[in-house]
Amino acid sequence: MTSSQKPKKQELPPTAWAVLGLLSFPGERTGYELKKWADSSLRFFYWSPAISQIYAELRRLEELGHVASERSGPEEVRAKRLYGITPAGREALAGWAGDTAEAGPPVLKHGLLLRIWLGHLAEPERLHAMVTAHMERTTRELADVREAVAQAAEVADWAFPTLALRWSERQHLAELELTRALLEDLAELGGPPAAAGDGQGRQGGEDAPTPG
To answer: For residues 84 and 68, is the Cβ–Cβ distance under 8 A?
Structure first.
């Protein structure tokens, strides 16, 4: 095959590759099972697509020949469709996973920090309550991550997912440390500036509170 005959690299959204990746492990799965696995693994370090997105990507992948599906037999009380990766799908996935191109920077959209940034418009007690609630939620998430790590570590084929989940465990621990530091910063800051409510504390030519 000449270079002009080589197939072009398949352009798919990351969600499609994630769904195909879930199918790259042994066994066939339903869309519902893929959603459950995404909720107990992918969401800790990437995100978990909605069930509608999973089925949309499965249809796309099946049209491309990367996935094959079949309905369960009559012995099943409720018929279900099982999906499995094809050799072509595994080859495409391996090419994407091994691509040396830059994967891109992590995307951080921290809703709590956006509210802290606007803290001059909020009561200190409410800010403290939001940060405390975030710490409690992160603590619960950490417990879920550790449970997922324990489950993955018991399956030999999940060695690499275990590494990703261990990274997520460390990330949640770091988030807790950052949140504790944020509580300390809020305590040191105390109440909002006297002029924060009416905006008259700034002079017309004063720069915005950003670096540089």
So the answer is: yes
Q: How far is CA 116 from CA 63, 120, 122, in A?
A: 46, 8, 9
| Per-residue pLDDT tens over the stretch 140-197 | 999 999 999 999 999 999 999 999 999 999 999 999 999 999 999 999 987 544 444 4
Q: How far is CA 167 from CA 31, 55, 85, in A?
A: 26, 28, 27
Please tell me whether residue 60 adopts helix, strand or coil conformation. Answer: helix
Dig out the tokens for 81 from the structure: 């469709």
Query: Which residues lie below 8 Å from residue 109, measured CB to CB, with a gap of 6+?
Result: none
70: helix, coil or strand?
A: strand
In this prediction the pTM is 0.78
Helix (H, G, I), strand (E, B) or coil at 144: helix
Query: Are 31 and 50 spatial neighbours (Cβ–Cβ below 8 Å)?
Result: no
The DSSP symbol for 29 reads B
In angstroms, what CA-CA distances link 191 with 47, 55, 113, 135, 194? 36, 50, 17, 21, 9
Q: Which of 68, 29, 32 minimizes the C-alpha distance to 50? A: 32
